[in-house]
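User: Reviewer 2 asked us to show a designed sequence for the structure in our supplementary figure. I'm pasting the structure tokens here. Could you produce the per-position amino acids so we can include them in the response letter?
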């Protein structure tokens, strides 16, 4: 306990130190902003010199504007304004006050990826307004006209220093404040011209905000209960029977209170020395969540509201209205306290109010606030959360809770992920995200009040869609958020856009357990009101259903058979809800990541056959039946006590489920002229553990013989017990012919349902003997050479120690995270398609699974993926952004790693990086076991760790602190660099497809399209010799549904009796049992790599590609002296040069042409042709 406390204190201190360093980086150097200050001063002087104009009727003023001010400015009136019946007049005079407001004025602004805003408030003169200008859009019309006057002043002004118009120095345009067309503003960005007005280096955007004084319009006319449209809006138009316009009034009131809010926050900043630091940290955090200065349309919660919330907590918010935070707290403590309050407070039921004297009016405010949340400002008049939708509040609180969790997590360093990287990419942030091309729809018409007040339809649509999805998806989802896209700025000479499409992203965080269920239970038909609402929601999808417990309920059923397709039930539900309730949105609904299921898990060679299912259920059932049968066999010399699975197809992580031999037979019958070789059967592998006994032999050779005899006995017992084919395989190709040791003996079985199983026999005595022989150089070697013993021992440890341990942990994680297995399969498909995984020279299968496990165990800054697609892109993100050169990937796969283990891993990693020498032969171990990839395989304690080998991809666990289990030899640096580059390119590709619908399908298909241009050689293989495992693995045969044609041409079900099974196995068993794991192409490439290990590196897709790529190794063609023991095919340098130099005399170099000829000769019958793209 004391150690955990000390660790927690250390993590908190470290996090606080990192925060302080972050503040140093993001604080603005105000003293160095001379060009920006100069620009603000010139704006101030320019605006104060605006020429006054006499009053004119509004329509005449509009007509005269081009002549009086500028014909290069289009007045930014909101759509439909000024009203045709408007009779009021418009005057112009200089502003009565100008201030630099916002975070820049308070000096709480920070650097972000998008820069920062500098808000200049231009207070329009009181003489411009009448006390009743809140009515009928008069205020917003005058505000837009005055903004046009300010724009014209900018257009016409000439900088006295440069003699050039300001438009030559600045880009000036209009934009909508937080996406509301009723509140246009001016935005100014500098051009990099090195002038005195060039503030482009600051990445600042100056925003000109017209405001009014607190006295211009009486505040009683801006209260929530006031009706600013008398005669147009009546009590009958409002749901609560009150003729009021609270949101409309609040927009005017906000403009009137800007100065008051600035003064209040200035006092708070002056009274708390760390208030600015806390606000700065909050702005960084908000920016990473997508609350950015240039994207205020997407979110209404901003840095100003955060600052007010922090000010409130310094005054109140606790029990009995006590303050939650203290002025004596540090900036980090203030930020964390505010974030915790945001994460846990119930804003819907517990309103926030600065002034105690307003408490008595609380009920009145709630009745007319027309907003789901209430946070009254210090004046007690303005609801600061009036525009925040439930979707945005849910998203904000979810992100706050998630951040608090990661900040408190002692596993690793989450600071970089939380505060230095954006979290807004929907592919990474959500389990599912759907694109709406235009959220403005006629399916949700505006209410009469919103239509009259010209409220943005986007906000109303978001709220109604949110409510629809919450009612439809229920507990399948943990979070639903809808994020409209930012509205672009427009040029000064253009009118505001009126019918611009506004796209939106629907983001879903799902409950991993509930999201894939097939049936949703609704209310009982006895509850007539609820049942009617359910049927109205689901329409024809709703049905009355009786369940096994006898209850009869309204329900919906979603028919998705396979595990992969059930992941899309959520998308089916959203599409149906949209199609029923808002069909205009449904036609443009696009679930982009759904294409992955069609392009990655589907097989191009699929033959449609009835009765075939792409599922792990049937082969796992066959394996479990075999396990039970093995444990009950009584005629064995030693009983079987345990059977440990070790292969990926027994933990749901192989790309395709295990294939049946019966399936292979059917596919071969459908292959015309035997054009395709479909003999490959990937086995389900397991290790047998026998009961302890003194009957075990005492020497290694005899143990090997005993294992072969035991397998023969086991084979006979199985044949007597039930129909099955089994064959004992010694596998001599994995050991030298001179050695009497054959540790690769195994038993291959074809089960009654046709599924292949490979069994290995583990003997603790054999492991101990191998270790003694392999690691003791003084011991006489009578059975095999030292190097071969080391190789055998390494393979033995991999098969019987590492693979079972790895299998157990990965399967446990897949059971705890339902989407993890699908993620692994998607990532395997991607790496294999690009020829970078699952082969002897690339990324090992187990290493890939550990990388995916890291995505689920350390998901910061997000939650653990709830879908395979989200996990897939998170894995690509990890591959692309992890600093493989400077940081190990520490996978806490047991979820109980002690701090000292992390320290040990870091120490070993630094030692590995500091050493650049190659391991001596005595310390190097090659693992090349049966059906296994070559890899360094020391004993778990690190006894055989090759000292000095640089490990490019350092993946460590508590059991493997030296990264020796899976990545000690592979992937090499060139493969890792390619893997990182492809991950980055893949993420960029799908990011582009999110921005545009053009060629979207082709872009996503390119995720699996390998680029062959970077290879030096291309080996084109003969399709007749390909094993095509993907072809065979398309589906699994279920004997109960296996159909064939009878003599009448009709389909009939196979007889599944024992006699029928035995007769079918007689046809396929003898062939299939000899082709289990038989992959001739992989074996050929392994031989090529062994022969040309110093010359070439080969890359192949293990799922049936007919092209193998090869790269010349660096230095392969360098000149070298001729040596008699050289294994390279060389040619004298003098023969290749017309004028050989003296220095090249006696030197040789690689004879590349002959090497290529040799490869073609060795691959006769397998290699169809070779394309030479580059010579070394």
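Assistant: Here is a per-position design you can include in the supplement:
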């Amino acid at each position: 306990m004391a150690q955990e406390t000390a660790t927690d204190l250390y993590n908190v201190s470290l996090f606080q130190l990192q925060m302080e360093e972050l503040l140093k980086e993001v604080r603005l150097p105000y003293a160095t902003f001379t060009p920006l200050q100069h620009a603000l001063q010139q704006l101030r002087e320019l605006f104060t010199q605006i020429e006054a104009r006499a009053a004119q009727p509004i329509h005449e003023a509009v007509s005269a504007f081009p002549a009086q001010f500028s014909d290069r400015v289009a007045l930014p009136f909101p759509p439909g304004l000024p009203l045709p019946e408007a009779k009021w007049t418009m005057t112009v005079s200089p502003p009565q006050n100008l201030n630099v407001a916002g975070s820049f004025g308070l000096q709480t602004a920070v650097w972000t990826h998008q820069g920062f805003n500098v808000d200049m408030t231009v207070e329009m003169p009181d003489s411009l307004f009448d006390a009743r200008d809140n009515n009928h859009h008069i205020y917003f019309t005058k505000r837009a006209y005055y903004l046009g006057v300010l724009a014209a002043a900018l257009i016409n002004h000439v900088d006295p220093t440069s003699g050039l118009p300001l438009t030559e120095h600045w880009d000036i345009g209009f934009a909508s404040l937080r996406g509301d067309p009723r509140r246009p503003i001016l935005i100014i960005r500098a051009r990099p011209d090195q002038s005195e007005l060039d503030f482009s280096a600051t990445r600042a955007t100056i925003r000109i905000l017209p405001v009014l004084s607190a006295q211009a319009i009486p505040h009683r006319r801006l209260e929530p209960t006031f009706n600013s449209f008398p005669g147009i809006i009546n009590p009958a138009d409002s749901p609560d029977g009150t003729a009021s316009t609270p949101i409309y009034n609040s927009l005017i009131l906000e403009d009137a209170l800007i100065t008051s809010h600035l003064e209040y926050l200035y006092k708070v900043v002056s009274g708390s020395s760390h208030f600015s630091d806390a606000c700065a940290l909050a702005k960084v955090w908000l920016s990473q969540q997508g609350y950015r200065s240039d994207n205020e349309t997407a979110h209404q919660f901003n840095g100003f509201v955060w600052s007010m919330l922090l000010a409130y907590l310094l005054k109140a918010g606790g029990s009995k209205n006590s303050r939650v935070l203290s002025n004596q707290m540090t900036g980090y403590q203030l930020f964390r306290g505010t974030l915790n309050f945001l994460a846990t407070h119930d804003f819907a039921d517990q309103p926030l109010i600065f002034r105690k004297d307003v408490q008595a009016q609380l009920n009145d405010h709630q009745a007319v606030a027309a907003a789901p949340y209430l946070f009254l400002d210090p004046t007690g008049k303005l609801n600061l959360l009036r525009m925040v939708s439930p979707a945005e509040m849910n998203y904000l609180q979810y992100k706050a809770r998630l951040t608090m969790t990661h900040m408190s997590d002692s596993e690793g360093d989450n600071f970089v992920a939380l505060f230095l990287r954006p979290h807004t990419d929907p592919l990474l942030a959500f389990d599912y995200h759907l694109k709406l091309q235009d959220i403005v729809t006629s399916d949700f018409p505006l209410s009469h009040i919103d239509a009259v007040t010209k409220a943005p339809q986007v906000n109303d649509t978001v709220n109604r869609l949110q409510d629809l999805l919450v009612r439809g998806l229920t507990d399948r989802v943990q979070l639903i958020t809808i994020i409209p896209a930012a509205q672009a700025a427009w040029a000064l000479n253009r009118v505001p856009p009126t019918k611009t499409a506004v796209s939106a992203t629907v983001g879903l965080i799902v409950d991993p357990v509930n999201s894939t269920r097939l049936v949703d239970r609704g209310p009982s038909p006895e509850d007539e009101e609820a049942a009617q609402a359910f049927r109205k929601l689901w329409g024809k999808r709703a049905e009355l259903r009786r369940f096994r417990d006898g209850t009869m309920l309204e329900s919906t059923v979603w028919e998705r058979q396979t595990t992969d397709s059930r992941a899309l039930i959520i998308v089916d539900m959203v599409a149906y809800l949209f199609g029923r309730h808002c069909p205009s949105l449904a036609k443009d609904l696009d679930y982009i990541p759904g294409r992955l299921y069609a392009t990655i898990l589907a097989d191009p060679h699929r033959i449609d056959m009835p009765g075939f299912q792409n599922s792990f259920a049937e082969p796992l059932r066959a394996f479990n039946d075999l396990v039970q049968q093995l444990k009950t066999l009584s005629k064995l010399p030693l009983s079987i006590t345990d059977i440990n699975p070790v292969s990926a197809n027994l933990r749901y992580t192989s790309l395709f489920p295990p294939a049946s031999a019966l399936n292979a037979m059917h596919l071969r019958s459908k292959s015309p002229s035997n054009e395709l070789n479909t003999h490959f059967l990937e086995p389900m592998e397991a290790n047998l553990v026998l009961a302890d006994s003194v009957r075990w032999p005492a020497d290694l050779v005899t143990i090997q013989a005993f294992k072969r005899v035991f397998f023969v006995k086991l084979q006979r017992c199985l044949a007597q017990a039930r129909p099955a084919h089994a064959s004992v395989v010694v596998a001599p190709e994995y050991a030298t012919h001179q050695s009497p040791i054959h540790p690769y003996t195994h038993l291959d079985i074809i089960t009654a349902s046709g599924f292949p199983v490979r069994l290995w026999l583990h003997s603790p005595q054999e492991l101990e003997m191998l270790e003694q022989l392999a690691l003791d150089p003084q011991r006489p070697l009578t059975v095999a050479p030292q190097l071969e013993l080391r190789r055998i021992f390494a393979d033995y440890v991999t098969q019987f120690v590492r693979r079972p341990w790895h299998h157990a942990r990965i399967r446990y994680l897949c059971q705890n995270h339902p989407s993890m297995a699908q993620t692994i399969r998607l990532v395997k498909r991607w790496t294999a398609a690009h020829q970078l995984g699952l082969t002897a020279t690339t990324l090992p299968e187990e290493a890939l699974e550990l990388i995916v496990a890291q995505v689920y165990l350390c998901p910061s800054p997000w939650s653990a993926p709830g879908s395979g697609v989200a996990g897939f892109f998170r894995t690509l993100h990890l591959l692309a952004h992890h600093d493989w050169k400077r940081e190990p990937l520490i996978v806490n796969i047991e979820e109980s790693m002690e701090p000292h283990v992390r320290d040990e891993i870091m120490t070993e990693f630094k030692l590995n990086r500091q050493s650049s020498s190659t391991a001596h032969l005595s310390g190097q171990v090659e693992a090349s076991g049966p059906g296994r990839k070559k890899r360094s395989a020391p004993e778990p304690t690190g006894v055989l760790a090759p000292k000095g080998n640089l490990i490019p991809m350092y993946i460590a666990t508590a059991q493997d602190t030296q990264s020796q289990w899976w990545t000690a030899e592979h992937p090499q640096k060139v493969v890792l660099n390619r893997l990182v580059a492809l991950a980055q390119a893949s993420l960029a590709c799908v990011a582009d497809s999110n921005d545009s619908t053009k060629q979207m399908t082709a872009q996503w298909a390119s995720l699996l399209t390998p680029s062959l241009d970077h290879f030096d050689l291309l080996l084109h293989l003969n399709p007749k010799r390909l094993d095509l495992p993907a072809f065979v693995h398309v589906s699994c045969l279920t004997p109960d549904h296996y159909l064939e044609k009878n003599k009448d041409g009709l389909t009939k079900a196979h007889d599944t009796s024992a006699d029928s099974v035995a007769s079918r196995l007689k046809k396929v068993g003898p062939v299939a049992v000899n082709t289990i794991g038989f992959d001739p192409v992989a074996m050929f490439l392994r031989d090529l790599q062994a022969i040309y290990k110093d010359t070439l590196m080969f890359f192949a897709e293990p799922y049936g590609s007919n092209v193998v790529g090869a790269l010349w190794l660096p230095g392969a063609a360098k000149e070298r002296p001729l040596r008699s023991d050289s294994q390279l095919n060389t040619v004298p340098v003098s023969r290749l040069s017309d004028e050989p130099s003296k220095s090249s005399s006696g030197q040789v170099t690689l004879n590349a042409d002959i090497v290529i000829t040799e490869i073609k000769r060795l691959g006769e019958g397998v290699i169809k042709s070779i394309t030479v793209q580059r010579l070394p």
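For the response letter, you might also mention the following. The mean pLDDT is 82. Residues 343 and 484 are 23 Å apart (CA to CA).
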